[in-house]
Design brief:
The structure is a single chain. This protein is mainly β. It contains five helices and 53 strands. The N terminus is likely disordered.
Length: about 900
């Protein structure tokens, strides 16, 4: 610790000495203002030009309050060029400045472009994207989408952006944590999924991908610093203060239906969104397993009252029912041998979730604000799983066989409340943030476990094991969290950061198990060996100090935190108690450099902590699967992860090319892995353990090219991963190395209003190497081709086609596939503004839809084939509100 203090003092004195040598330099500052809306303009580009030859002296971007500042300029005479997409440029002169002088140019007014645009303004309006500090901005109008497309369809056409089947969004491999509209939250719970599927692409003006400091600093009970990606959607001016929406209903063969209703209104102060959706066609996903019925409804309302009070409330309901029949093959490794496990199962899952969230912001004055957040969620679910299984050793010798039935009724209730106070001071960049939160959760379950298993003991002898149990489980979790953070600016660009945090989490679970008594025909025989009362108290304390510098092009921050935690695990049933106390240093560093207004690089490092979950700690047996019995480990230690992230990106608005290269590395100490013990009959006992030397590395490359200088985009993506996981099987070290490559190519083409298509290809190779096992099934290869196109014919008629091809090899026991899937549609627009649509569609015309997947673990490889949605036909009617 003494060395760190000496090093910090040395760095401070060195920088202070450097600044003292630059007192003869000058400083220019000001703010950029929207002359029409009377609002500050963030992320405007301000270029400082030398008056004598108009050469560039420096460049910077305005902050969230429209402010900019140039430091360390030599004495002389300058001009300021201010540009912003959609505004007329401003060029103003600054008087000749002598050494050491500070000049405040005041407010620079920018006027929105009208019907008469200059040559340079026309070029800027057609920019696909714009890179500024911490923000990548896409111009939605530069990316062609189909008529009545959703925001999700638009996002899929942006370079470096991926949207999976669940609606989760990734940018260059990083998960997007939140999506906002005009800077305001919209459906805090699963907001990104809801917004992407229910907001019309025609409303969107710009899409901003922002790297920001994390707002929620608690992750699994641990303070988590660093950055996160969010997406902000800005609405077109002409679409504000008008009602927009879609009302669609469809019905088809085999009872298939589709409903999509949404209504929205946005302006500078208010936003309102109303949703009501439902379907039983798997939400249009190709190759997804099972048949799912979904209902979703929600409402969101936000308002700013006279700029003093901001309010945001939302309600969201989801109801799902899934019916999935699976056929799985698992290859289990035991020492230097292996055996196969096959299973035929059917699972019925039904759930309903309700979520209410509210935010209230009081702006006391221009320097202070108080923020309240409250969330309440409630859910009920019912699960029914039935299966038949069989295990075979060498020469197809049966090891065991049987059947099982698992039923579970579950209720979850959770609430989280937070209040925070934020204050800025008269001294620029000085700030104080204090937050307090409390959360409570309750989990109630009523499981039923029935199974019959036959084990081959050899020499014709068998062992029969039957289980018929029910139980009551109740888990309660309470968490209190406090954090205070203070930032003190030092000299011109530097600052110190001080953070204190405390987290106390109390978790308890009571599990009562009863066996079926055939004499009374009731579940009244108490099973004390599988019942348990367990309590865990986690207390964490953190003190953090950091130093950072922010300049126009370069910024960095380094910090170190002292983390103290106490873990108290008490087994009330057996009277055992384990107390763990530990302290450690958690370093963190981040750096960013902007080479130009189109190129930047960012580096981030953090040491983090992951605590074991309650189910991993409880020393109680879970025999819901008789062949895979699980039990907890109260001696588990927290895992320590060293995380490194590096990203380099270039977005050139002139050549219309983009490139993003990312590297992610994680090295983990005390990682949680399963220790597997297998007996001669194929039964396994699985218990979590801590291991060292686990690591994973990945490289992600995304390249976007605008073809023929039109709205046609060609995207290439490559993701390569290496993961190494130590483990133990039957007490013997069993290390696993997994290497995978995924190559994607996507081309979107538009020919005026006549033809539009998206073609893509995906290649995925996965190779798992076990320390003591080699075999052909360790390699898994997936290739896919897809084409989605629409041809617009006269009289408002549109023909659409969706073609998918998938090839899988490397699977076990006939789990490989080679399938084609074809969907077609014919639609007709009518109405003065084409606001009505009638659409007929056919799905899986070739009857080849198939779903397969692969899972791997420390001692197994598993291939799963799931039931699918079979061929059906549907007729839809739509009305689009707000079309002009």
């Amino acid at each position: 610790m003494r060395k760190l203090v000496v090093l910090a003092l040395f760095v401070f004195l060195f920088i202070d000495h450097a600044w003292s040598q630059s007192l003869k330099n000058i400083k220019i500052k000001g703010r950029v203002y929207d002359n029409e809306l009377k609002e500050w303009l963030p992320s405007a580009t301000v270029t400082c030009l030398r008056s004598k030859d108009s050469s560039k002296a420096a460049i910077c971007f305005t902050d969230s309050n429209g402010a900019f500042v140039f430091d360390s300029l030599p004495a002389g005479k300058f001009s300021l060029l201010v540009t912003f997409v959609g505004y007329q440029s401003s060029l103003s002169s600054v008087k000749e400045i002598v050494g050491g002088e500070v000049v405040d140019v005041g407010n620079i007014m920018l006027t929105r472009t009208g019907m008469t645009l200059s040559q340079i303004e026309i070029v800027r309006k057609k920019e696909l994207f714009r890179l500024s500090k911490d923000t990548l901005e896409f111009n939605a109008g530069s990316f062609s989408t189909r008529e009545n497309a959703s925001l999700e369809d638009l996002l899929k056409r942006l370079p470096g952006v991926q949207v999976d089947e669940n609606g989760d969004i990734k940018v260059n491999g990083e998960v997007v944590k939140a999506v906002t509209v005009n800077g305001k939250s919209l459906f805090n719970i699963n907001g990104s999924r809801v917004i992407g599927k229910n907001l019309q692409a025609d409303l969107v003006d710009k899409i901003q991908v922002i790297d920001r400091d994390r707002e929620h600093l608690v992750t699994d009970g641990v303070l988590a610093g660093g950055r996160e990606k969010v997406i902000n959607i800005t609405i077109k001016e002409k679409k504000k203060k008008t009602l927009n929406g879609e009302f669609t209903g469809g019905y088809g063969t085999q009872g298939r239906f589709f409903i999509k209703n949404n209504l929205s209104r946005f302006d500078s102060q208010q936003q309102f969104v109303l949703l009501g959706n439902g379907d039983n066609i798997n939400d249009g996903h190709v190759g997804s397993g099972g048949v799912e019925r979904r209902w979703m409804s929600g409402v969101n309302y936000s308002n700013d009252f006279r700029g003093k009070i901001g309010m945001n409330i939302s309600y969201l309901m989801n109801s799902n029912k899934n019916d999935d029949r699976k056929s799985s093959v698992r290859k289990n490794f035991v020492g230097d041998s292996s055996f196969f496990y096959t299973e035929q199962s059917r699972s019925l899952n039904e759930s309903i979730d309700h979520g209410i969230s509210g935010q209230l912001e009081f702006r006391i004055d221009s320097l202070q604000k108080i923020f309240f957040v409250s969330q309440i969620s409630f859910s009920k679910s019912h699960q029914d799983i039935r299966s038949d299984f069989r295990s075979e050793g060498s020469l197809q010798r049966e090891l065991n066989s049987g059947s099982l039935m698992n039923l579970n009724r579950r209720k979850l209730f959770a609430t989280a409340n937070m209040i925070s106070y934020s204050r800025k001071f008269r001294k620029e960049r000085r700030s104080l943030d204090v937050s307090v939160s409390y959360s409570y959760g309750k989990d109630s379950q009523e499981p039923y476990n029935v199974s019959n298993s036959v084990y081959q003991l050899g020499n014709g002898h068998i062992s029969v094991d039957s289980i018929n149990q029910t139980g009551d489980y109740e888990g309660v979790n309470r968490q209190f969290f406090f954090m205070a953070s203070y930032r003190e600016p030092i000299a011109k660009n530097g600052y110190f950061l001080f953070t204190l945090a405390e987290d106390k989490t109390e978790s308890g679970s009571d599990r009562m198990v009863f066996d079926y008594d055939f004499s009374t025909r009731k579940y009244d025989h108490f099973n004390d060996s599988m019942s348990n009362s367990f309590q865990s108290i986690n207390q964490h304390y953190l003190g953090k100090i950091g130093w950072g510098v922010k300049r126009n092009r370069f910024d960095y921050e380094v910090s170190v935190a002292t983390f103290l935690f106490k873990l108290d695990n008490a087994n009330n049933t057996f009277g055992n108690n384990i107390l763990v106390k530990k302290s450690m240093l958690l370093p963190e560093a981040r750096m960013g450099y902007v080479f130009s207004d189109k190129e930047e690089i960012r580096l981030y490092y953090q040491k983090g902590i992951q605590l074991p979950g309650l189910d991993q700690l409880q020393p109680v047996i879970d025999n819901s699967s008789p062949l895979y019995v699980r039990r907890g480990n109260v001696k588990l230690q927290p895992a320590e992860a060293n995380n490194l992230f590096l990203n380099y990106k270039v977005f050139d608005p002139v050549s219309m090319h983009s490139l993003s290269v990312s590297f992610t590395g994680v090295i983990t100490k005390n990682q949680f892995v399963n220790n597997v013990l297998t007996d001669s009959s194929g039964r396994q006992i699985i218990q979590p353990e801590n291991v060292d030397k686990a690591y994973s590395f990945s490289i992600s490359i995304d390249k976007g090219i605008l073809v023929n200088n039109k709205k046609n985009m060609l995207n290439f993506g490559l993701v390569s991963r290496l993961r190494y996981t130590p483990g133990y099987v039957d007490g013997i070290e069993q290390n696993t190395r997994n290497i995978s490559f995924t190559q994607t190519t996507r081309y979107s083409y538009t020919h005026g209003r006549f033809f539009d298509c998206v073609a893509s290809a995906v290649l995925n190779y996965d190779n798992v190497k076990y320390q003591r096992q080699l075999g052909p099934n360790n390699r898994y290869f997936v290739a896919g081709l897809s084409f989605n196109g629409e041809l617009n014919l006269p009289l408002g008629i549109t023909f659409g086609s969706d073609f998918n091809y998938r090839f899988v090899t490397g699977g076990m026991m006939d789990q490989n596939i080679n399938v084609f899937m074809l969907n077609v549609s014919l639609s007709k627009f009518w109405g003065l503004h084409r606001q009505f649509l009638l659409k007929a569609e056919g799905h899986d015309l070739l009857r080849q839809n198939t779903s397969v997947s692969r899972n791997t673990g420390v001692n197994y490889i598993e291939d799963v084939r799931s039931s699918i949605l079979e061929q059906f036909f549907m007729l839809r009617v739509s009305y689009f509100l707000g079309k002009r």
